[in-house]
Here is the input.
Amino acid sequence: MAMLKRKIYDDLLTWKKKSDGATALMIDGARRVGKSFLCEQFAKNEYKSHIIIDFGNAPKDILDLFLNDSSNLDLFFAKLSAFYSTTLYKRKSAIIFDEVQQFPRARQLIKYLVADGRYDFIETGSLIRLKKNVQDIIIPSEEEHIEMFPLDFEEFLWALGDNATATLMRQCFDSKAPLGQALHKKIMNDFRQYILVGGMPQAVLEYVKTKDFEAVDAVKRRILKLYRDDVSKFAEGYEDKVFAIFDEIPGQLSKKEKKYHLSSISKQARFRSYKDSFVWLSEAMVVNTCLNTTDPNIGLALSADYATQKCYMADTGLLITHTFMDSPYIDNDLYKAVLFDKLSINEGMILENIAAQMLRRNGHKLYFYSRNDKDHRENHMEIDFLITEKRKVAPIEVKSGSYKSHSSLDKFKKKFSSKLSNSYILYTKDVMIKDEIIHLPIYMTMFL
Here is the structure.
């Protein structure tokens, strides 16, 4: 597998230096987001030797070792070393527990392995906090968590061999200066490719190699199929509900109001019976959940309404494939629409999904504001996203390039004026400040 430069590598370096064996590192992320590959590269580059134990298909001998020989760590390490034919060096070797959620016993041992202090431990997992996998173990406090996401736009540009553009974008963002028509057009063109390919490493590598969207689509179909297999395997007892929610995502996002309405699954569907299924998809990092905050005055999380949420795909490239999963690539009109800037049909859905993806990648929990007042239309408003900036709230609206008005934003600004920092509109045109609203090209979401 060719190399993709990932920013998270630097976070691993920081952990190694600061922790110096005092903590294990747990990397949470969706399947196929590149966790195992990253760990392997890191261990190869930064340690004298390393062992990777893949609990997705670890041999019985190794599982027995964890169950029966863990009380004597000298023997435990000697056997590990022999089994993997790898010499372990004190403070110079790393042991990686890959897909550790599939074998909770290994995770429980982390406490003792870290206390022993001989080696560094890195764990990778997805669906990691699912109750059934941790019910009998004490989650080690010696674990530091870090989340891994699909490649962001800057990493995608690096993959295409462009190391200069993101720096320039950052300068224009900081000074709120327009980039100028030619440059904006070029970046939008690259960004459209990023939307279509998405940020899953295998899809990006395929695109870098072939520049063929059909080949990329085939890669993404395989990833989506893997996700479905995971649901069957790991969501026992409520897999049908998880499938129902997952399959309905494109339909929900293509509506004007993107709130997830369970009634489209069945008239009898109630949130409490589907709650675990939403949690499952969110914990697996397959979706980005966006909650309605009913009172932005008091801190977004405090007034979050879990029963009213929007459900975005964690990777927009996967959303595009997922939307047309039942028909061949050739029928997927979204590719043409995105490439030729004719995105009228589902523009809102795609731009909002990529905005959610970028905000989440920046560490924001996702919230929106929705107030429905049938009797007083003047109180009715929908704000796509709310983030916190300098302890204040920043409302964000996602618009198409040809939008005419922003009445919800105006009402929201008036109602909560004392609580607000900047107001933003994300759209497909160049940087502009108008009506005290900062208009940013959608690709600049990565700086918010």
Notes: The mean pLDDT is 89. The first strand starts at residue 24 and ends at 29.
